[in-house]
Amino acid sequence: MPKFFTIVAALLFLLIAAGHAYRAYAGIEVVVASHVIPMWVSWACAAVTAFLGIMLFVECPRGLHGPGK
Fold it and tell me: Which residue from 52, 29, 56 is spatially nearest to 41, judged by alpha carbons?
């Protein structure tokens, strides 16, 4: 059975990826201490967090077929 934390972490990564992608797609401007964060940063963060979320889901079934099973 997959670890509960792994599923939660994967879902959180995918939720964050969706948030970054929505921000970039909708053109929502983010300003931090008078610095405007470029849209490409959100696209890059969306790609990285989506990759991490997907990889966590790929890792889940390995717990079912561990050594000696």
Answer: 29
Give the C-alpha distances (Å, rounded to integers) separating 22 from 27, 37, 42, 58: 8, 15, 9, 24
C-alpha distances in Å from residue 9, one per residue of 15, 33, 46: 10, 30, 15
For 29-65, what is each residue's pLDDT tens digit? 999 999 999 999 999 999 999 999 999 988 876 555 5
* Residue with token string 């997907």: 54
Residue keyed to tokens 């979320």: 53
What distance in Å separates the CA atoms of residue 37 and residue 29, rounded to the nearest whole number? Answer: 7
Contact 42, 21 (CB under 8 A): yes
Tokens 């059975």 belong to residue: 1
| Distance from C-alpha of 28 to C-alpha of 37, rounded to nearest angstrom | 10
